[in-house]
Amino acid sequence: MACANNVTELIITGLFRDPEVQRVCFVLFLPVYLATVVGNGLIVVMVSVSKSLHSPMYFFLSYLSLVEICYSSTVVPKFITDLLAKVKTISLKGCLAQIFFFHFFGVTEILLLVVMAYDRYVAICKPLHYMNIMSCQLCHMLVAGSWLGGFIHSIIQVLITIPLPFCGPNVMDHYFCDLRPLFKLACKDTFVEGVTVLANSGLIALCSFLILVSSYIVILLNLRNRSAEGRHKALSTCASHITVVILFFGPAIFLYMRPSSTFTGDKLVAVFYTVITPMLNPIIYTLRNAEVKVAMRKLWARRRTQGWNEKKTEGWR
């Protein structure tokens, strides 16, 4: 029989129990998070101010970077501050809010990756009709659809979780709020809720992954008849996107496509996709993309010139 819901605060065990290890993690992960915000923010600024990057591909990339900042900020700031706390707590409402935004931005990112794959498919397989197909209106609709899809998904997850009774214990074996460790704390059988949540998340991830794989198979088949130079140019525009897709879906497949026993391994894998991957994305797109590197150099040169002119003006006063 389900008991009354009398838990209002949860205790989080964190990533590690050893205080010394936690301090080391704080020193390591704080610069990583700052690099995530700065790196992705730089891409957003570059795309907005650089005329050479005003194309559908970079339009989607700027939104992907924005989502990366939001996605990482949902978990990492509290995770970093908790590394220095003796007792790590979060309210039940705060936990549900974190779950909502974590899934919201996570699924929005998945759908944006699918949109970017479609953009590359049109650019490579139908180059003569690219600008007609990828119109400004369609680009905005695809981005809006990605946000809407993420919202609907996360609303479903939270609506499934809210009715669950939590009457103790209130210790969650994780470093942030997620559905699987939270379900362990419910004082009722959560098999149906677990299957529903898994089906909801799994269906989105599986369909998106199949679409991504199919799109790049079609692209590779289409490139067989291109010249070596044409193949190299086309593949260079896809390489960064494929790398990001592998980094994003790899840990997700490991976590959700297998039965869970303990959360020790899950927590270490979760660090990769919540802390590390959002930082790697701007590095991958910068190193693999000549246009982004040129735009970054121009932006840096413009900034230095403005700074020099400001100093000269101050000197003349």
Percent strand equals: under 5%
Number of domains: 1
Task: Profile the largest sheet.
Answer: 3 strands, mixed
Architecture (CATH level 2) name: Up-down Bundle
Q: Overall mean pLDDT score?
A: 86
Number of beta strands? 3
What is the tally of helical segments?
10
What is the CATH homologous superfamily assignment? Answer: Rhodopsin 7-helix transmembrane proteins
Percentage of residues in helical conformation: over 70%
Question: Helices and strands: which structural class?
Answer: mainly alpha
At the first level of CATH, what is the class?
Answer: Mainly Alpha
Q: What is the end-to-end distance?
A: 80 Å
Q: Give the C-alpha Rg.
A: 22 Å
Q: Give the strand order of the largest sheet, numbering strands 1, 2, ... along the chain.
A: 2-1-3
Task: Sum up the structure in keywords.
317 residues, three-stranded mixed β-sheet, 3% strand
Provide an overview of this structure.
By secondary structure, the protein is an all-alpha fold. It is globular and about 65 Å long. The protein contains ten helices and three strands, in the order E-H-H-E-H-H-H-E-H-H-H-H-H. The protein has a single domain (9-302), classed as Rhodopsin 7-helix transmembrane proteins (Rhopdopsin 7-helix transmembrane proteins). Helices cover 76% and strands 3% of the residues. It has a three-stranded mixed beta sheet. The model has no long low-confidence stretch (mean pLDDT 86). The chain has helices spanning 19-49, 56-82, 92-125, 130-133, 136-161, 179-183, 191-222, 228-256, 264-288, 290-316, and strands spanning 9-12, 89-91, 171-172.
